[in-house]
């Protein structure tokens, strides 16, 4: 079976969509499927991946058409208006993995996002969470995103002696500023607390300025962007991972990584984060400073929060999720 992936964004860009696109292409390739991937992302100065599948960066329309005609299934990561035209030339089975709801931060649909949602009715929809599934006009199958269990696992030789951890892009919708405000509220109560922030992004300087303004340098440490084993070690040093997003997250692989490394999860409510946390998270009211502050205080004062989370993660690793996808794609191909 020949699968042609189309993902506008891919490595070396970083993010949930990019990591899942790589994981699925790699996993399905290892399972014996013929995988080719088209992306609109330039390689730049990075070294090209060697993962057992072919990558075509910014191919011509003729190249895309040739790859498409030789494929059995056309697989989109989200609906891409730039990538659907081959289907109009010669219809094939079209699978869409929806990583997003298509609604913006204000909960509204732009003109083009509304077109994408309507077009998706003609494809075989799969979503990364039930939360995303319920937003589609045509409901589909839910298959959670995988995490890399070769990297993210409990490391008992590491001393878990640090309080709170944030991991993510430093953009306004991830809620890191709200988290810093909550840390300040707790420090004002003369409580001992420490937060480690891992990530980079456009809000980095503003967040640093806020930490200086609140005189929280001894309470908050910025480590910059981390990945791989270095990031896994950081997870294993912390009791609690905080995911304070103020927009509705479709899923959140970071929650799976944290759980796999033994962290307790605190996250905002009402979206895919609760699913990504496998029902094990302590939630607070999204965007509510008082609710977040009280939840952090509960964690500080409740020793049970500091117990290493013991849960079976085998159903969510790359091999298991790739196997689910192979079963689903094979059934689609044969019907």
What's a quick, concise take on this entry?
This protein is α/β, with parallel strands linked by helices. The chain is built from twelve helices and 13 strands. It has two domains: 2-146 and 317-334, Rossmann fold; 162-306, Rossmann fold (3-Layer(aba) Sandwich).
Descriptive labels:
2 domains, alpha/beta, Rossmann fold, 335 residues, 12 helices, seven-stranded parallel β-sheet, six-stranded parallel β-sheet
Topology diagram in text:
Elements: E1 2-7, H1 16-30, E2 34-39, E3 54-57, H2 61-69, E4 73-77, H3 85-89, E5 93-98, H4 111-119, E6 124-127, H5 130-133, E7 141-142, E8 162-167, H6 176-188, E9 195-198, H7 204-213, E10 220-224, H8 228-237, E11 238-243, H9 253-260, E12 264-268, H10 273-276, E13 282-284, H11 289-301, H12 318-334
Helix pairs in contact: 1-12, 6-11
């Amino acid at each position: 079976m020949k699968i042609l992936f189309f993902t506008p964004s891919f490595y070396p860009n970083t993010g949930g969509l990019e990591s899942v696109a790589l994981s699925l292409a790699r996993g399905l390739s290892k399972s014996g499927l013929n995988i080719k991937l088209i992306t609109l992302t330039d390689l730049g100065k990075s070294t090209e991946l060697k993962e057992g599948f072919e990558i075509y960066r910014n191919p011509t329309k003729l190249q895309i058409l040739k790859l498409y005609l030789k494929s059995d299934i056309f697989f989109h990561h989200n609906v891409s208006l730039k990538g659907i035209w081959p289907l109009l030339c010669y219809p094939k089975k079209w699978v869409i993995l929806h990583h997003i709801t298509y609604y913006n931060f204000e909960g509204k649909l732009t003109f083009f996002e509304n077109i994408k949602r309507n077009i998706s009715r003609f494809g075989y929809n799969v979503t990364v969470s039930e939360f995303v599934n319920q937003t589609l006009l045509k409901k589909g199958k839910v298959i959670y995103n995988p995490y890399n269990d070769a990297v993210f696992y409990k490391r008992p030789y590491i001393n878990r002696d640090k309080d709170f951890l944030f991991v993510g892009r430093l953009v306004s919708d991830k809620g890191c500023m709200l988290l810093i405000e909550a840390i300040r509220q707790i420090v004002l109560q003369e409580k001992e607390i420490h937060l480690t922030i891992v990530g980079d992004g456009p809000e980095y300087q503003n967040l640093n300025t806020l930490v200086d303004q609140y005189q929280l340098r001894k309470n908050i440490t910025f480590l910059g962007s981390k990945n791989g084993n270095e990031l896994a070690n950081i997870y294993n040093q912390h009791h609690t991972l905080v995911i304070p997003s103020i927009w509705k997250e479709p899923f959140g692989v970071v929650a799976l990584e944290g759980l796999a490394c033994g962290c307790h999860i605190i996250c905002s409510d009402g979206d895919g984060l609760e699913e990504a946390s496998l029902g094990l998270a302590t939630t607070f009211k999204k965007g509510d400073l008082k609710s977040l502050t009280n939840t952090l205080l509960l964690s500080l004062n409740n020793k049970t929060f500091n117990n290493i989370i013991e849960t079976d993660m085998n159903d969510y690793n790359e091999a298991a999720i790739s196997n689910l996808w192979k079963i689903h794609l094979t059934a689609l191909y044969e019907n």
